[in-house]
């Protein structure tokens, strides 16, 4: 039985208020992680835009992922940082719905773009002769648009199911953002059935895209092992090493949240930190630190800046 079936206009985000003495410390930590996250993703997009040598499908996919992750963090982290500095942490029902649909849509888009990047690696290594014909910049753009459409189709479906009815008091959301599980449990309707359906949709999308990526790497590995020279093998592995690392981190942290049994307990607020804060922070670092093309493009931009200053 729900406690009070009144029409709610806002939710109270409990979030990190259960750790009152750590508010300032958490703000500093998250702010210091968010700044390089934002800077790194903007740098990737900017370098890809200004350097014509990076106008290739691989870097166009990377730029699309950076844009998606920038939007992804903007839906969660600024609000979270602001709430760490105030006592009254509220969000309107409409604002909650928009935040949820954006977060789910962008998270799904990230999964689909990572899958497309795996497909790009597969074509480059397994079908190098046909790669220029199959993976043109136009085809890359169409695939990215398809990833956005698919991601937001799923998110709008899930958000519509959760917000189709009214919500019951108390309006306390035991999270630092409008996480679908935390919100659906406040529904006056059959929340158990809705929670099962939306969770099943998210888990299916998560596992489905991950399995597709694993399948592409099975073919990639079988092709690489047939390369006779050690140098050729190393070059092939280095092409996809950054992508595979990000895939493991992204899907690993996401699986902890969506595949965690409800009876296992644990603070959902703390469990959500890795995939909302840490994964976006690590992604641009991994893709740029060992990437010679990105480093060269950065040096080129710095060189032009220094020459203009002189």
Automatic annotation (TrEMBL):
Q: Does the keyword Amino-acid biosynthesis apply?
A: no
Sorted UniProt keywords: Cell membrane, G-protein coupled receptor, Membrane, Olfaction, Receptor, Sensory transduction, Transducer, Transmembrane, Transmembrane helix
Membrane-spanning residues where? 25-47, 59-77, 97-119, 196-224, 236-259, 271-289
Predominantly, its location class is: membrane
Provide the function of this protein: Putative odorant or sperm cell receptor.
**Family in the record:** Belongs to the G-protein coupled receptor 1 family.
Query: In its UniProt entry, what is this protein called?
Result: G-protein coupled receptors family 1 profile domain-containing protein
Query: What is the organism field in this record?
Result: Bos mutus grunniens
């Amino acid at each position: 039985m729900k406690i009070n079936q009144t029409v709610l206009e806002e939710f109270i985000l409990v979030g990190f208020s259960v750790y009152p003495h750590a508010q300032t410390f958490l703000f500093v930590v998250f702010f210091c992680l968010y700044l390089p996250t934002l800077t790194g993703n903007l740098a990737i997009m900017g370098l890809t835009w200004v350097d014509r040598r990076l106008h290739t499908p691989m870097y166009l996919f990377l730029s699309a992922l950076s844009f998606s992750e920038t939007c992804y963090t903007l839906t969660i982290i600024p609000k979270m940082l602001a709430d760490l500095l105030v006592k009254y942490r509220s969000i309107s029902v409409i604002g909650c719905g928009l935040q949820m649909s954006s977060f789910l849509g962008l998270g799904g888009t990230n999964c689909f773009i990572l899958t497309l990047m795996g497909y790009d690696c597969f074509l480059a290594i397994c079908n190098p002769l046909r790669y220029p014909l199959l993976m043109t910049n136009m085809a890359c753009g169409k695939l990215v648009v398809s990833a956005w459409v698919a991601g937001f189709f799923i998110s709008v479906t899930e958000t519509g199911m959760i917000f189709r009815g009214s919500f019951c008091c108390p309006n306390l959301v035991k999270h630092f953002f409008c996480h679908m599980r935390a919100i659906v449990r406040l529904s006056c309707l059959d929340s158990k059935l809705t929670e099962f359906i939306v969770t099943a949709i998210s888990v299916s999308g998560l596992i489905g895209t991950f399995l597709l990526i694993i399948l592409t790497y099975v073919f990639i590995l079988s092709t690489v092992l047939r390369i006779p020279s050690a140098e050729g093998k190393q070059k092939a592995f280095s092409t996809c090493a950054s992508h595979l690392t990000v895939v493991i981190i992204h899907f690993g942290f996401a699986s902890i949240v969506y595949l965690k049994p409800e009876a296992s307990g644990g603070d959902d607020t703390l469990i959500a930190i890795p995939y909302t804060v840490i994964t976006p922070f690590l992604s641009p670092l991994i893709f740029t630190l060992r990437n010679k093309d990105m480093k060269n493009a950065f040096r080129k931009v710095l060189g032009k800046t220094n020459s203009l200053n002189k």
